[in-house]
Amino acid sequence: MGSLEGKTALVTGGSTGIGLASAERLAAEGAHVFITGRRKVELDAAVEQIGPQATAIAGDISNLADLDRIYETIANTGRGLDVLFANAAVAAFVRLEDITEEHFDTLFGINVRGLLFTVQKALPVLNDGASVILNGSTNADVGAEAFGVYAATKAATRSFARTWANELRGRGIRVNTITPGPTDTPGLSGLMPDEEHAAGFRQQLAAHVPLGRLAHPDEIAAAVAFLASEQSSFVTGSSLYVDGGMNQV
Fold first, then answer.
1. Is the model's pTM score more than 0.85?
2. Which of 39, 178, 194, 210 is in the most buried spot, having the most CB atoms within 10 Å?
């Protein structure tokens, strides 16, 4: 039996990258996993990859009506949620002098507002003793050029985890942040205009990681599975760094 046998999980942004790898790992540990995303074609492909333990619900976390529909679908199963991995987020490079209202509103609308209501609207379906995991970033700790708005959203994510861990302790619900370093995902490469620039970007990032490489999504997923399971039963309000030592040494 896996560490999550008989449990139910939701992974937002679960059709690609860290979200997909995490959904696969949670399913492999025995959970039935709901995944959300904005693109139905990618969601259907993800379900086919994960297998019968997965159910896709199309929706945008920045749309509160979509969130209501997502949780209504989960509530109708009658099992509640044991694990919530609030993973969905967006990123873009924009220097201070070039930041627009649209850039700010998009990143804060999804990464902060969307995250907040993803967790708030989950409260009625979260089972007592559930694990809530927020997807953070090492960028919250550093001043990477042109990443100011994104980094600020991830600093807010870390702050939310601390506050919500306090607020939900009465129900035994643990809230933690997973803090990945640079991870080889389509989203990372998508920050660059083409594959040639993306390859150079990945190489540049890897040079700053003490382990000398980017993370594989499966490595982040393993840490998510740890925080989701009873193996981390005395861990709450924390940030688990999975960054190859990038922000540690």
1. yes
2. 178
